[in-house]
Write a structure and sequence with these properties.
Blueprint: E1 4-11, E2 14-26, E3 34-43, E4 56-59, H1 61-73, E5 84-85, H2 87-102, H3 113-116, E6 120-126, H4 131-139, H5 159-164, E7 171-178, E8 184-191, H6 204-214, E9 231-234
Parallel strand pairs: 5-7
Antiparallel strand pairs: 1-2, 2-3, 4-7, 6-8, 6-9, 7-8
Helix pairs in contact: 1-4
Length: 243
């Protein structure tokens, strides 16, 4: 099991625990090498527990798709291509999210199914996760760039942002668990995956458009993450291009 370290910090009147997790990701199939990547997370105070008889997976693709495309296109002089619903990704995400729900979310962290099906993955944990909360939290990692173009260097602290804005990703599917005690899990899968080491998420022209829309250091937040809910934006996946 990967080690998890928690450090409480205070945000306003609420305490948030910042989690640092590590997970192994696949390198080349020939070498079987694994590369570690960190998971950054933020969790707020615990809320009410969901009723156990409601354990199931809920397809959130349509709602999350609209929010992704809002960030990717709205008011941008040079917009990114819109994502489309991927039926294959829907099947993949619904199957493993249903399994996790039936197990009361005993398994946490990234799935193995996304990598097995060559898909990128963003994960958000909350007592009641929503597309609004998840997508806003992922996008707001843009603030860590301080107006600087992300370029081709991998930075785990903005991995959710770069995946959801990855120019070459075209397909999306999202689902969440319901009825888990404590944290429920919201996954979005991207096809083809983003976050390739040595590749930029988008062009500098797109970045200039984003900065113009959002401001040099701010983000266009659709919905802030509530400090009254348990919320975790777990680390995004890193894919490695092997020559």
């Amino acid at each position: 099991m990967a080690p998890v370290f928690a450090m409480p910090i205070k945000v306003g009147a609420a305490f948030v625990a910042v989690l640092l997790c590590s997970s192994a990701l696949f390198g080349s199939a020939a070498s079987g090498a694994e590369l570690p990547t960190g998971n950054n997370a933020a969790k707020a105070s615990q809320g009410a527990e969901a009723e156990p008889e409601q354990k199931k997976a809920q397809d959130l693709t349509d709602a999350c798709l609209a929010l992704h495309n809002k960030y990717r296109t709205e008011n941008l002089d040079v917009p990114l291509p819109k994502l489309e619903k991927s039926e294959k990704a829907v099947k993949v995400v619904m199957e493993f999210v249903e399994k996790r729900a039936q197990e009361m979310c005993k398994t946490q962290g990234h799935s193995t199914e996304s990598q097995q099906n060559y898909m990128g993955e963003n994960l958000f944990l909350s007592n009641d996760p929503t597309c609004e909360g998840a997508v806003a939290a992922w996008y707001n990692e843009i603030q860590k760039l301080n107006g600087k173009y992300p370029g081709t260097t991998w930075d785990l602290s903005i991995g959710h942002f770069t995946q959801m804005m990855w120019e070459k990703s075209t397909g999306l599917a999202c689902a969440r668990t319901t009825g888990c005690t404590g944290w429920n899990q919201l996954f979005c899968l991207y096809s083809p995956p983003g976050n390739y080491e040595g590749e930029a998420p988008f062009s500098e022209a797109v970045w200039k458009s984003i900065k113009k829309r959002d401001g040099l250091s701010g983000a266009m937040a659709l919905a802030p993450v509530s400090t009254g809910a348990l919320a975790v934006a777990a680390g995004a996946l890193l894919y490695v291009v092997v020559a």
